């Protein structure tokens, strides 16, 4: 019982942090999209939404873990919860893949990028992504071989889904995606090497080469670095869970469900907390937008405090406060 309560507390804290962190990143990225009309940032916004939905999905499991005495969850309800968790996690992973492909396309085809990746294409990609994610998440509900034959009332991932489901996802999705990422970044490294050579040649010859082909901007390669960190964190977070699930399928006598559900699964879910932290730290545009949001909040709080003090200080205090507000400079507000 103590173990269940401890797990429930950890789950509640993790779910809250995931929702709050991704909501803040979503607000910052949405502001950037409205300000700069950047289509590619829609993928970043989708990643924050998918991770926030994952936090919302696992928050539904908190009540079961913290309830005393432990009350059984209906099998159908547990299946739907785990399908929602799986589809949200799949949407997060597929979005990282889509961001990686978007950056690869921007560097590989800089002249045709905006022709290919227009508003319609971005919308189609996101619609297809959520369709595939929901198909993956709810797949065990339609295939009997991916379901557990027995259910004891305690809702968890492997209480309703068989490890064969994770094995199938690993072989069909996870490992091929890793190979695809390796191909992307090997090609990107080759392009980056050529780009560096072009810069050195431009320094000697001049800027005439730009008339024939505009060089890739440094921001493209910085964005690729951010995506590489996202992929690395995803691999480190989910690999232990997926590999141990494969071991469980191969070794039926090995009872690894406790380790899988209370440790490795939490490690994988924690990737949805790492994603917004990575963007908040590594992506300069997001950092600057956070600074602007914090400054706007600081100005709003300062104005509210001044108005409250004016109301409490009577007419004389109100006149002084109004005079102070009108003469307050921008630098004083930032300070």
UniProtKB/TrEMBL annotation:
It holds the Pfam family 7tm_1. One of its GO terms (cellular component) is plasma membrane. The chain crosses the membrane at residues 6-34, 41-62, 82-101, 165-186, 223-243, 263-282. Keywords: Cell membrane, G-protein coupled receptor, Membrane, Receptor, Transducer, Transmembrane, Transmembrane helix. InterPro entries: GPCR_Rhodpsn, GPCR_Rhodpsn_7TM, GPR119. GO terms for biological process: adenylate cyclase-activating G protein-coupled receptor signaling pathway; insulin secretion. This is G protein-coupled receptor 119. It comes from Bos mutus grunniens (Wild yak). The lineage of its organism: Eukaryota, Metazoa, Chordata, Craniata, Vertebrata. The gene is GPR119.
